[in-house]
Amino acid sequence: MAASSSFCSQRTLPLRTPSHSHSKLSSRHSLVRLPASGSYSYPSPYLYSESNNYCSGTRAAKIGLKASATPAAPVMDQTSSSSPAVSTVVEVDLGDRSYPIYIGSGLLDQPQLLQRHVHGKQVLVVTNTTIAPLYLDKTIWALTDRNPNVKVESVILPDGEQYKNMETLMKVFDKAIESRMDRRCTFVALGGGVIGDMCGYAAASYLRGVNFIQIPTTVMAQVDSSVGGKTGINHRLGKNLIGAFYQPQCVLVDIDTLNTLPDRELASGLAEVIKYGLIRDAEFFEWQEKNMQALMARDSRAFTYAIKCSCENKAQVVSLDELESGLRATLNLGHTFGHAIETGFGYGQWLHGEAVAAGMVMAVDMSRRLGWIDDSLVKRVLNILQQAKLPTAPPESMTVDMFKSVMAVDKKVADGLLRLILLKGPLGSCVFTGEYDRQALDDTLRAFCKS
Ligand SMILES: NC(=O)c1ccc[n+]([C@@H]2O[C@H](COP(=O)([O-])OP(=O)(O)OC[C@H]3O[C@@H](n4cnc5c(N)ncnc54)[C@H](O)[C@@H]3O)[C@@H](O)[C@H]2O)c1
Ligand SMILES: [Zn+2]
């Protein structure tokens, strides 16, 4: 079956001016109808000057985000790591559930940032055994400094995806109930995506919903899981099967927390950063091609910028399609193949971003076989993933049948048809579609598997 020509139509997004009010959002929602599958490409969001500088404030306005008071974020050179990091704010526009994402260095040293989003007098910090010794005291200080009326409790959960379950969730409720947390209390997630997802789901259901703040401490959480309101836990029969859409009051990304993050976790998060460039932001991808070494060297200004661009992209997708009726699915580039790797190879063997990286290579390979992208883009994807020290092929033990059996039960199967996110057209354009030649999928699987 050949791809339908309707997928060639390009979608552009409405631009939002700084005067855009929340009340206008609902009318925009009703205007933007999202197809179950379609082609998504966006107006070039960056300004790129001869001096190699990006003007981020203007860019934010151009891609329809509330402009932040951010000075221009320069492209990194290797000498910039000693300069102070700029902090920035990205607004997630969801009407009366809108919230800011603060990004920068030293944000946990600014108590007023956190305190302004704590409404009641009781706070429950949810964290784990790895992060508590590193950042719990600092977080409690930030919550209580010159704020004697607030009472902070904490619950320290075991570390690991295997604990993202109902039993561990109950420990959060136990602590909240024992501490007599009332409806005006605030839950604070201090950690990576596992803690963020669990704490968010606890906040969504405790007393039918209490305030919630995200302090993400992994790249994965800072660029992806803390933004957009997906919360939940795993069931023994599958990942993230129990959960809720629940938005936080704010997200506070203190990039200094990345200093203690293991290299492998850092690289895993970069897979999602690369993903945003590929699916919708060509100039961000080009910036990454020039600055991947700075990111790998944990240059704080490079990271502030990469997290900002990633959050802007995710925020915009989420504000257009909060409940994933179409556009939001494009954030899953490489995830269907990647999920098969995580399941087939065994959870915990490869990190999520590592599986997604190999999955993106497979999706890109398939897009090329369909004739939807140029060979040169395939090379650029391989090159940037190699620079980020991410895998570019699935583990050798993966077979065609392993891929097929997991992909057959993917959440994106509709009416027996597997819909995939594939690249189509120039860099920064993708489709979410079930209309592709099945042979191309078979050829890709065979090309990457020995049997
Ligand atoms: N809600 C969403 O939209 C969304 C999106 C993507 C991923 N997720 C979920 O996120 C989870 C993966 O998140 P993750 O990659 O952050 O994994 P994670 O939360 O398990 O963190 C990875 C490891 O790093 C440790 N760690 C965290 N911050 C640290 C720091 N600053 N210094 C040292 N160690 C630190 C953690 O304790 C853990 O051992 C998965 O459960 C996935 O389902 C959710
Ligand atoms: Zn992911």
From TrEMBL:
Its cofactor is NAD(+); a divalent metal cation. Residues 1-28 are annotated as: Disordered. Pathway: Metabolic intermediate biosynthesis; chorismate biosynthesis; chorismate from D-erythrose 4-phosphate and phosphoenolpyruvate: step 2/7. Residues 269-413 form the 3-dehydroquinate synthase C-terminal domain. GO terms for molecular function: 3-dehydroquinate synthase activity; metal ion binding. It catalyses: 7-phospho-2-dehydro-3-deoxy-D-arabino-heptonate = 3-dehydroquinate + phosphate. Residues 155-267 form the 3-dehydroquinate synthase N-terminal domain. GO terms for biological process: amino acid biosynthetic process; aromatic amino acid family biosynthetic process; chorismate biosynthetic process. It is found in: Plastid, Chloroplast. Residues 1-12 have a biased composition (Polar residues). It is an enzyme of class 4 (lyase). Keywords: Amino-acid biosynthesis, Aromatic amino acid biosynthesis, Lyase, Metal-binding, NAD. GO terms for cellular component: chloroplast. Its EC number is 4.2.3.4. NCBIfam families: aroB. Belongs to the sugar phosphate cyclases superfamily. Dehydroquinate synthase family. PANTHER family: 3-DEHYDROQUINATE SYNTHASE, 3-DEHYDROQUINATE SYNTHASE, CHLOROPLASTIC. Catalyzes the second step in the shikimate pathway. This is 3-dehydroquinate synthase, chloroplastic.
